[in-house]
Amino acid sequence: MIATVNGVAVAADAAESLEFATVRELLRQRAVAVGALADDVEDDEGVGAGIERLLGDEVGIPTPTEEECRRYYEAHRQEFRSGDLVHARHILFQVTPSVSIPVIRARAEQVLGELLADPDRFADMAQELSNCPSGAQGGNLGQLSRGETVPEFEEALFRLDSAGILNGLVKTRFGFHIVAVDRSIHGDILPFEMARERIERLLKGAVEERALRQYVSILAGQAEIDGVELNAAATPLVQ
Question: What is the number of structural domains in the chain?
Fold first, then answer.
């Protein structure tokens, strides 16, 4: 299938959706228009860097206020505990300068869908596909406590509802993870002062996603797009 964005043809391969490819071209054109990207840059890494600069300049993300953080804390106190432990497994699809992020993400989403339908294949898929040494042990990470992993991975592991194979990919600086939480052992509730930094990250992430959806929607409304209908579901894929 092929779409066009302001007359520029966009095609998707088997590893990415046409909606994703269209959003990426829409953002690429905007990045060129405002000087965040040179028009002759075509490689995925260069285009991705230009889009990141564009979003950094044009999508303002406010810092949550203390009142907002306290309100979230009071409504989700059980999520902020010390001494929590989890037994977890994961499959890492590593992102490196030489790989296409859209292709890697699409592949990870495909495998996640297969595992949600057939969880018993997790160990075999980890051995076959994971870019982490834990893949040799079926993706097993053993027992983890807070502070042992990067923050974005930790937040997924220790969410109150984390159990079994998580429904969404976990994105970290290393790549995209399929995560299975096999057992959770909860500790004591942390005071607000110790939980505030984590709450700020959570709230800012939610605001950022909404802002990105709105930004892409505005750009799409100003562009001539044929062959595909963009919707909010496509916009998180810009990252």
Answer: 2
The tokens describing 86, both together, are: 């989890």
Domain with 234, as residue range(s), is 2-62+198-238
CA distance 199 to 205: 10
Q: Is 127 found in the same domain as 227?
A: no
Does the residue 68 lie in any domain? no
* This prediction's pTM: 0.50
Largest CA distance in the chain: 58
Which residues 6+ apart lie within 8 Å of 135 measured at CB? 91, 92, 126, 127, 128, 129
203 and 185 in one domain?
Answer: no
pLDDT over 90 at 109, yes or no: yes
The dihedral region occupied by 6, where left means phi > 0, alpha psi between -120 and 50, and beta the remainder, is left
Q: 224 or 18: which carries more pLDDT confidence?
A: 224
Alpha carbon distance 35, 47 (integer Å): 12
C-alpha angle 106/109/115, rounded to 5°? 145
Interacting residues of 26 by C-beta distance below 8 A, sequence separation 6+: 5, 216, 219, 220, 223, 225, 230
Decide if 69 is inside a domain: no
